[in-house]
């Protein structure tokens, strides 16, 4: 058999196995959960110009949350959001609306919200996010019965416009649910939206950095320094909106990766060599085809390109495709992997160069009204 074909087949097997290992880890996490007596809950939302979604978000949370739950919204809007929130505060006793005194972005708004929290458990939510009654009871009970002071809830999109851009994100997140969020290769990664944390852990971790572009990555670093790994729990899902257009997706990825690179560079300057290793490992994985071409070109022998590169693509494709099929067994998206792979290469490269140029504006993804 041709060595390249053999490498591709071996890569397929390895990639499929990795996806199944991630699936097994998620199921094992779910089986090990113990539900205790739920503690009081505070839901925090940083809002800025969210007139299209904020009312449905607040009403859904207020209707589904356990009794005595407080909903805190820090708002720095210039559209009709303040008027909507003022009206809702008249109707919903559990809603506390705080005008943003800083208007310096989401991290500063969340810091301000945390100073007004009364609940023992804090849930961070985006202004477009929803969670049903079971989720708002299940996760606080699990956190109360767990040794971990934090957990990250599973999520899915509720976009009514099922564009190909939304489908591409579903494909990517099916991969992330098995190989990124559970922490197969590194510590578990989470997003702040859908994150439940005990208040005392947040107090020990300290405030968000005001200029960070990635409040979740920033909090993850501080929790990791406390020895806290945040488990990913595939229970009731938090509903969010995915980026609806290619433009929105580009600027969202640019913020994620620019912010992540900036945070890792800061940790490296402080002596965090593990982040240097992480950055180099990610660069090698993402740009391995270019590295292989360069190394083989310098050596004058096409060994990596002919023998290793087919296995590399087989591994990544199988890991992504098996993850997608585990999520939606009847949906086989052949176009999604090459698009996502090219998209990550493009946006990571752009983000790396952008990370050297001062402050980066926070691009706001357009919301679908609802």
- What is the number of E strands? 7
Report strand %.
5-15%
Overall structural domain count:
2
Shape: globular
What is the rounded distance between the termini? 56 Å
Superfamily (CATH H level) name of the largest domain:
Spore Coat Polysaccharide Biosynthesis Protein SpsA, Chain A
CATH architecture of the largest domain: Alpha-Beta Complex
Biggest sheet: strands side by side, in what order?
Answer: 3-2-1-4-6-5-7
How would you characterize the largest beta sheet? 7 strands, mixed
How many helices? The count is: 13
Order of helices and strands: HEHEHEHEHEHEHHEHHHHH
The CATH topology of the largest domain is: Spore Coat Polysaccharide Biosynthesis Protein SpsA, Chain A
Structure class: alpha/beta
CATH class label of the largest domain: Alpha Beta
Mean pLDDT: 93
Level of helix content? 40-55%
Concise account of the structure shown:
The protein is an alpha/beta fold. The chain folds into 2 domains: 3-22 and 268-354, no CATH class; 33-243, Spore Coat Polysaccharide Biosynthesis Protein SpsA, Chain A, CATH 3.90.550.10. It has helices at residues 3-32, 54-64, 81-91, 106-114, 133-144, 164-179, 199-205, 215-225, 246-269, 273-286, 288-299, 303-327, 336-354, and strands spanning 41-47, 70-75, 95-99, 121-125, 150-157, 195-198, 232-240.
């Amino acid at each position: 058999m041709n060595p390249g074909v053999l490498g591709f087949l071996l890569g397929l097997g390895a990639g499929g196995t990795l996806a199944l290992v991630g699936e097994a880890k998620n199921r094992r996490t779910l089986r090990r959960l113990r539900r205790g007596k739920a503690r009081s809950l505070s839901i925090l939302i940083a809002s800025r110009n969210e007139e299209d979604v904020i009312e449905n978000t607040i009403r859904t949370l207020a209707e589904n949350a356990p009794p005595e739950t407080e909903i805190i919204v820090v708002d720095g809007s210039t559209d009709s959001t303040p008027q909507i929130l003022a009206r809702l505060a008249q109707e919903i006793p559990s809603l506390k609306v705080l005008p943003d005194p800083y208007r310096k972005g989401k991290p500063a708004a969340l810091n301000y919200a945390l100073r007004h929290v009364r609940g023992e458990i804090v849930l961070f939510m985006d202004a477009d996010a929803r969670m049903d009654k079971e989720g708002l009871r299940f996760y606080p009970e699990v956190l109360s019965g767990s040794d971990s002071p934090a957990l990250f809830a599973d999520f899915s999109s509720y976009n009514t416009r099922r564009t190909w851009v939304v489908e591409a994100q579903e494909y990517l997140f099916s991969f992330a649910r098995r190989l990124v969020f559970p922490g197969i290769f590194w510590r578990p990664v989470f997003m702040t939206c859908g994150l439940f944390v005990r208040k005392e852990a947040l107090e020990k971790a300290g405030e968000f950095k005001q200029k960070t572009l990635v409040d979740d990555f920033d909090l993850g670093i501080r929790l990791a320094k406390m020895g806290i790994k945040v488990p990913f729990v595939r229970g009731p899902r938090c509903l969010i909106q995915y980026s609806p257009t290619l433009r929105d997706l580009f600027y969202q990825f640019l913020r994620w990766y620019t912010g992540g690179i900036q945070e890792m560079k800061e940790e490296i300057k402080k002596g965090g060599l593990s982040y240097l290793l992480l950055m180099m490992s990610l660069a090698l994985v993402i740009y391995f085809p270019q590295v292989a071409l360069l190394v083989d070109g310098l050596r004058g022998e096409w060994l990596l390109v002919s023998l290793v590169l087919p296995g590399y693509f087989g591994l990544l494709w199988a890991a992504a495709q098996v993850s997608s099929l585990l999520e939606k067994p009847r949906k086989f998206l052949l176009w999604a992997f090459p698009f996502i792979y090219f998209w990550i290469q493009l946006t990571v490269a752009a983000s790396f160069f952008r990370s050297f140029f001062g402050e980066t504006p926070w691009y706001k993804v357009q919301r679908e009204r609802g």
